[in-house]
Design brief:
With 232 residues, this protein is mainly alpha-helical. It has 2 domains: 127 residues, Helix Hairpins, CATH 1.10.287.3610; 103 residues. 82% of the residues lie in helices and 0% in strands. The protein contains 9 helices and no strands. α7 runs antiparallel to α8 and α8 runs antiparallel to α9. The radius of gyration is 20 Å and the shape is flat. It comes from Thermoanaerobacterium xylanolyticum (strain ATCC 49914 / DSM 7097 / LX-11). It is found in: Cell membrane. Its cofactor is Mg(2+). Belongs to the bacterial diacylglycerol kinase family.
Length: 232
């Protein structure tokens, strides 16, 4: 029961993210901007602290937008008429989003401006020697794309059912990344067997259909191959 309650809690949390993405135009813009920055970061040899700054900044913007959505929803639930205090609540929440967005622009300026120069080839060479960084970014992109597709098709819950299978996408993403990094047939075979078992368990448990699992696997494999072919 405790495990079920924990899984339900994750479902509710991710459903909140999906709701904000589906209903808020700014949330869609933030997601696109986050994907763009994460992909762009592959071109630069950021330190751990710089990557932490990027991740925290992206998270801050998304969190602020979600809190703003929650406050607007609560205000609309309480009253559908104009009220000065309701306006203040919405304006303050919107102001928090604005501050977080301006902070993101400032951080992006500090981290990217001096790196946007004609010596892209030198930076790409550094990236080729950083497979861990590529794997991390690829995994995030696969997860975000899965959430977007689940929101679009609107079936199942974030962690159970729906198109595509997130577990399958992540499992085959990691298996493909392991193949590129290790370049070892045994490790590659074991990785894909484990990914297949994850996918099979989703079908056997009647959580996903075979089609949903296959689509998830294709997404995980293709995105990982694309990233490693471009950046490695």
């Amino acid at each position: 029961m405790k495990i079920k309650k924990l899984i339900d809690s994750f479902n509710y949390a991710i459903e909140g993210i999906i709701y904000a993405f589906k209903t808020e135009k700014n949330m869609k813009i933030h997601f696109v901007a986050a994907l763009f920055v994460l992909v762009l970061s592959l071109f630069y040899n950021f330190s751990k602290l710089e990557m932490i700054a990027i991740i925290v900044t992206i998270s801050l913007v998304l969190i602020a937008e979600m809190i703003n959505t929650a406050i607007e929803t609560i205000v609309d639930l309480i009253t559908d008429e104009y009220h000065a205090l309701a306006k203040i609540a919405k304006d303050v929440a919107a102001g928090a989003v604005l501050i977080s967005a301006l902070n993101a622009v400032f951080v992006a300026y500090l981290l990217f401006f001096h790196r946007l120069n004609p010596w892209v080839n030198i930076l790409l060479t550094r990236i080729r020697n950083s497979p861990t960084h590529i794997t991390f970014i690829t995994l995030i992109v696969v997860m975000i794309l899965t959430i977007i597709l689940k929101a679009y098709f609107g079936k199942g819950t974030p962690l159970r059912g729906g198109l595509p299978s997130g577990h399958s996408a992540i499992a085959f993403c990691l298996a493909t990344a392991s193949t590129f990094i290790s370049k070892n047939m045994l490790i590659s075979t074991i990785s894909f067997i484990m990914a297949f078992l994850v996918a099979q368990s989703r079908v056997e448990g009647k959580i996903h259909s075979a089609f949903q699992v296959i689509v998830g696997a294709i997404i995980g494999i293709l995105i990982t191959i694309l990233f490693f072919q471009i950046f490695k």
